[in-house]
Structure to design on (228 residues):
């Protein structure tokens, strides 16, 4: 799971990154809000840990940008020394999923992050995921459309599932490559484009079928529900 860490204190960034990295999370660190926002124009993250008090762009503003531009997912945890009820209400209304107060206890922070990660990936424990008429059978990596098998390669299956799990959310090329191919340095961007084209054709991802798979210029792809 890819986690974005935002804090202007580099010691905090190093210690939190080490803490979460030791638990299996892949962390990217940012020491100012605008740096993270710029990164979000080219990459995708599964979870955010954001400091509230930042000198350039307050964490609450970054949080609001994430919710306005990305949506209700992924989860966001606020690191803050603000503990008043009014502050908590403001953070929740802006879209925060949880809080950890500074100075934080490492075990508490890790437990909160793991809880958010579990909550956001609860469907990963299922054997089947259904999106409209499409049934993804996870154990056998079989996709059925209205009960009929759609013949996909393992990579095509994984890519289609990734897109549907991020329905209505743009996902970056970097995120797709890392998730599906493990960032193989020998792969070209053409490889992804070919797989996208095959998925669009095999799953009939066109407006008349209720879905639209479109490129996001300079970023990646977005699969969205299409309501005529």
């Amino acid at each position: 799971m890819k986690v974005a860490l935002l804090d202007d204190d580099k010691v905090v960034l190093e210690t939190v990154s080490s803490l979460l990295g030791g638990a299996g999370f892949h962390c990217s660190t940012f020491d100012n809000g605008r740096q993270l926002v710029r990164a979000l124009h080219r990459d995708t993250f599964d979870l955010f840990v954001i400091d509230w008090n930042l000198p350039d762009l307050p964490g609450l503003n970054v949080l609001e940008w994430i919710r306005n531009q990305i949506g209700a997912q992924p989860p966001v945890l606020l690191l803050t020394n603000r503990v008043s009820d009014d502050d908590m209400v403001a953070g929740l209304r802006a879209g925060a999923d949880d809080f950890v107060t500074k100075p934080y206890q490492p075990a508490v922070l890790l437990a909160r992050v793991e809880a958010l990660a579990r909550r956001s990936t609860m469907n990963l424990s299922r054997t089947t995921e259904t999106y409209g008429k499409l049934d993804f059978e996870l154990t056998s990596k079989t996709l059925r459309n209205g009960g009929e098998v759609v013949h996909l390669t393992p990579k095509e299956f994984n890519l289609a599932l990734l897109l549907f799990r991020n329905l209505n959310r743009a996902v970056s090329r970097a995120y797709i490559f890392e998730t599906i191919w493990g960032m193989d340095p020998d792969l070209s961007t053409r490889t992804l484009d070919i797989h996208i084209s095959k998925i669009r054709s095999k799953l009939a991802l066109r407006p008349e079928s209720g879905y639209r798979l479109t490129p996001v210029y300079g970023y990646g792809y977005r699969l969205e529900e299409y309501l005529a």
